Amino acid sequence: MKVSLFIPCYIDQLYPQTGVATLSLLEKFGCEVVFHQSQTCCGQPMANSGFQHLTKKLDGLNQNLFGDSDYVVCPSGSCTLHLKEHVLGTQTKVYELCEFLTDVLKVKSLTSNFPFKVGLHQSCHGLRGLQLAKSSELVAEPFSKLEPLLKMVGGLELSYPEKVDECCGFGGTFCVSEEAVSAKMGQDKAAEFEADKVDYITSADMSCLMHIDGILKRKKSNIKVIHIAEILNGLAS
C-alpha cells in the first residue's frame, strides 16, 4: 500500500519526532511511504483568517503533490480536515493517522509499551470534523478511534478529563485574536489533567498539545505532552 505522508509545517519545524514516529509506525504496518520534499503548509492558518483567496498557489501545489495519491495520511486532525474539505476534496483519500490505522489498516495489536498514566485530549477538528470519537452533544453509542489504539499499548493507564470533549482554547488563529479567552480555556483544560494526576497528555493534534504544554510549563508542572504517534510507535521515553 502506497501512502503519501503529509507532515504539517509546525510539526516539521517544532516537533519533528512526531513526523518520524508517524513514518516509522506506517512502515511497521507494511506501508510504502512517500514524503514529498516540496510540501509546505496545508493552508489552514490563512483560510481561518479569511484569506483563502490568497492560498491558490499553495492549494495548487498540494493538489499536484497529493491529488493522485492512493492515500494521504497526516498526524493532525485539523490539517487533515482542511486538506479534505478545502484542498483535495473527496476524490483523494485523506486520513488522519489514527483514522487510517483503525479504518484502513484495521490494526488489532501493537508491540509498544508506555507504563504511564496518560490523559487523552480530543481535539475539536478530530472530534466534530473527522468523527474520531462521539461528541457529548450527540445521542449515539459511544465510539473512539483513539482509545482502542491506546488500550493496545502495554502498561498505559488511560484517563479522560472531566469535560471530555471541551476545547483546549488553541483554535489556530483564535489564540491570537482572542488571546485572553484562549489562555483561560487552556488553563481550565490543563487544571483538569493536573487534578487527575496524569504523567502525560496525548492527542491526535500536536497544536492542541503545544498550547496546553505552554500553560503547563508556565505553571512549572511535571506533566509532559506527547503526540499519540510517539506512544503507538514505541519511541517515547
Automatic annotation (TrEMBL):
Protein name, as recorded: Fe-S oxidoreductase
A molecular function GO annotation: oxidoreductase activity
GO CC field: cytosol
Record InterPro entries: Cys_rich_dom
Signal sequence extent: none
Ranges for domain Cysteine-rich: 3-84, 118-213
Lineage: Bacteria, Pseudomonadati, Bacteroidota, Cytophagia, Cytophagales
Pfam families with a match to the protein in the record: CCG
